[in-house]
């Protein structure tokens, strides 16, 4: 269900034509390197697309002038590339042939075991094909003759690249069709079935198992705001015996199962009572499951001014970690403000599926790194080199770093990401891939 954009790293000696090839692949649609401040020159990611498949190209083109020997620099470059990528495009200059440096790269690539596509570049015409064939000797399989400069052979090369990458998302398709899947969860007696009854009262499309194949019998399809929604495991909500008899264990199993199948969770809490540990545990469970989240404070009809005061304090104290989740105050029994649920669900799902373009993300990261560098630890200063959003639902970011970022700094990055790009109603996952 979640999209995952694969990463292709381009490596090769200087002057073999990597930048030219990258420009050909991305069709020069994105900002050139110099326009992205703060991002290390030698590892810049670009959004690319071929045959409707999206992937991220990481150009490892530049060379660190401070590094020592050529072999070491090549090794370092290849290792970063391998770490960062799902597949590697290794570019060799066919007019020069195989050099020692190329062979050093091959050893690293072979050890890493990532899929490799070999480009024999600067094959500008038919005659060059012969030179390209000599690159079979690298032992990396078929060399794809290409002219990055003129475009010759680039279609076949990109076809091979797509084959090497893990299943890339198809840009034309929605992640998954059908009604949105909503789980209503919460501890016993907060008002889950009351809400469900209110929502389903007149517009219930399918109640039970009679309809057979298309609808899972434990779900209900409900029409809200002109659209159909699938409420997950409503049978479990209605079958109240176990919960009522205090078997919290079964309740939490049900919650886990519902979350598993849902896209968005509505956690109901009883606003007339102090937030309990069980409430906050269920809220965390939803966020940790990577689902979009709405928190509904039910039984608002029982909330007076004094209680309202305490609720605000409880929210500040207990719900800071999900401060991004839309909150609604409702009274399920009377239906008061229940109509606000749809807007909250839409907000949460929109945040959940937000994708930030690689260019915008790295412009943002560049600013963040220069304005708020990571604190120095033990004489070293970890640094974000670049990032990509690997998937949506929930938004998942991979940061390629030098050194390991501290948890506090990662939280800071998350906070700034939210300020910059929104992400209301969704947890954000941030993974780092440090290069030591
Ligand atoms: P990088 O250092 O690997 O990024 O290499 P560049 O992309 O900067 O290219 C180095 C030089 O090779 C430039 O002068 C390019 O114009 C040239 N070049 C790149 N691709 C080709 C090609 O397919 N054919 C020819 N004849 N020259 C190329
Ligand atoms: P569940 O166990 O979470 O499904 O909770 P129920 O929907 O069965 O509700 C538990 C109790 O809370 C019932 O007595 C409901 O009538 C009551 N209740 C539900 N919603 C409201 C509400 O908005 N206001 C008030 N005052 N009571 C409610």
From TrEMBL:
<dbReference type="InterPro" id="IPR003593">
    <property type="entry name" value="AAA+_ATPase"/>
</dbReference>
<feature type="domain" description="EngA-type G">
    <location>
        <begin position="6"/>
        <end position="169"/>
    </location>
</feature>
<dbReference type="InterPro" id="IPR015946">
    <property type="entry name" value="KH_dom-like_a/b"/>
</dbReference>
<keyword id="KW-0342">GTP-binding</keyword>
<dbReference type="InterPro" id="IPR031166">
    <property type="entry name" value="G_ENGA"/>
</dbReference>
<dbReference type="InterPro" id="IPR016484">
    <property type="entry name" value="GTPase_Der"/>
</dbReference>
<feature type="binding site">
    <location>
        <begin position="59"/>
        <end position="63"/>
    </location>
    <ligand>
        <name>GTP 1</name>
    </ligand>
</feature>
<dbReference type="Pfam" id="PF01926">
    <property type="entry name" value="MMR_HSR1"/>
</dbReference>
<feature type="binding site">
    <location>
        <begin position="121"/>
        <end position="124"/>
    </location>
    <ligand>
        <name>GTP 1</name>
    </ligand>
</feature>
<feature type="binding site">
    <location>
        <begin position="298"/>
        <end position="301"/>
    </location>
    <ligand>
        <name>GTP 2</name>
    </ligand>
</feature>
<comment type="similarity">
    <text>Belongs to the TRAFAC class TrmE-Era-EngA-EngB-Septin-like GTPase superfamily. EngA (Der) GTPase family.</text>
</comment>
<comment type="function">
    <text>GTPase that plays an essential role in the late steps of ribosome biogenesis.</text>
</comment>
<dbReference type="Pfam" id="PF14714">
    <property type="entry name" value="KH_dom-like"/>
</dbReference>
<feature type="domain" description="EngA-type G">
    <location>
        <begin position="180"/>
        <end position="353"/>
    </location>
</feature>
<dbReference type="InterPro" id="IPR027417">
    <property type="entry name" value="P-loop_NTPase"/>
</dbReference>
<dbReference type="InterPro" id="IPR032859">
    <property type="entry name" value="KH_dom-like"/>
</dbReference>
<keyword id="KW-0547">Nucleotide-binding</keyword>
<comment type="subunit">
    <text>Associates with the 50S ribosomal subunit.</text>
</comment>
<protein>
    <recommendedName>
        <fullName>GTPase Der</fullName>
    </recommendedName>
</protein>
<keyword id="KW-0690">Ribosome biogenesis</keyword>
<keyword id="KW-0677">Repeat</keyword>
<feature type="binding site">
    <location>
        <begin position="233"/>
        <end position="237"/>
    </location>
    <ligand>
        <name>GTP 2</name>
    </ligand>
</feature>
<dbReference type="InterPro" id="IPR006073">
    <property type="entry name" value="GTP-bd"/>
</dbReference>
<feature type="binding site">
    <location>
        <begin position="186"/>
        <end position="193"/>
    </location>
    <ligand>
        <name>GTP 2</name>
    </ligand>
</feature>
<dbReference type="InterPro" id="IPR005225">
    <property type="entry name" value="Small_GTP-bd"/>
</dbReference>
<feature type="binding site">
    <location>
        <begin position="12"/>
        <end position="19"/>
    </location>
    <ligand>
        <name>GTP 1</name>
    </ligand>
</feature>
């Amino acid at each position: 269900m979640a999209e995952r954009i694969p990463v292709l790293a381009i490596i090769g000696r200087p002057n073999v034509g990597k930048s030219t090839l990258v420009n050909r692949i991305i069709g020069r649609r994105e900002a050139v390197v110099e326009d992205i401040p703060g991002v290390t020159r030698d590892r810049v990611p670009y959004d690319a697309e071929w045959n409707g498949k999206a992937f991220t190209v990481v150009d490892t083109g530049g060379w660190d002038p401070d590094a020592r020997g050529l072999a070491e620099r090549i090794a370092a470059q290849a290792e970063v590339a391998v770490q960062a990528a799902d597949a590697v495009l290794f570019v060799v200059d066919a007019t020069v042939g195989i050099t020692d440096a190329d062979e050093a790269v091959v050893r690293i690539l072979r050890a890493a075991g990532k899929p490799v596509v070999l480009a024999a570049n600067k094959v500008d015409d038919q005659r060059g094909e012969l030179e390209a064939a000599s690159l079979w000797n690298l032992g990396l399989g078929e060399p794809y003759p290409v002219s990055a400069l003129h475009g010759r052979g680039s279609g076949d090369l990109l076809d091979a690249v797509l084959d090497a990458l893990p299943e890339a998302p198809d840009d034309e398709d929605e992640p998954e069709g059908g009604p949105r899947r909503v789980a209503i969860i919460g501890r016993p007696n907060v008002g889950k079935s009351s809400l469900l009854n209110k929502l389903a009262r007149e517009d219930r499309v399918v109640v039970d198992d009679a309809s057979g194949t298309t609808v899972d019998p434990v779900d209900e399809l409900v029409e809200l705001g002109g659209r159909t929604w699938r409420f997950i495991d409503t049978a479990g909500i209605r079958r109240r015996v176990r919960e009522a008899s205090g078997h919290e264990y079964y309740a939490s199993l049900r919650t886990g199962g519902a979350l598993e199948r849902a896209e968005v969770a509505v956690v109901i809490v009883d606003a007339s009572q102090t937030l309990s540990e069980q409430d906050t545990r269920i809220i965390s469970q939803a966020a940790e499951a990577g689902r979009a989240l709405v928190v509904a404070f039910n039984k608002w009809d029982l909330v007076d001014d004094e209680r309202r005061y305490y609720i605000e304090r409880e929210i500040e104290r207990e719900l800071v970690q999900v401060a991004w989740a839309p909150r609604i105050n409702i009274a399920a029994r009377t239906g008061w403000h229940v109509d606000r649920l749809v807007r909250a669900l839409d907000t949460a799902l929109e945040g959940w599926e937000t994708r930030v373009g690689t260019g915008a993300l790295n412009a943002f990261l560049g600013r963040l790194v220069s304005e708020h560098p990571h604190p120095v630890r033990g004489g070293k200063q970890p640094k974000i080199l670049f990032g990509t959003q690997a998937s949506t639902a929930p938004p998942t970011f991979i940061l390629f770093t030098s050194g390991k970022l501290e948890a506090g700094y990662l939280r800071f990055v998350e906070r700034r990401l939210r300020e910059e790009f929104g992400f209301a109603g969704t947890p954000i996952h941030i993974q780092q891939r440090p290069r030591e």
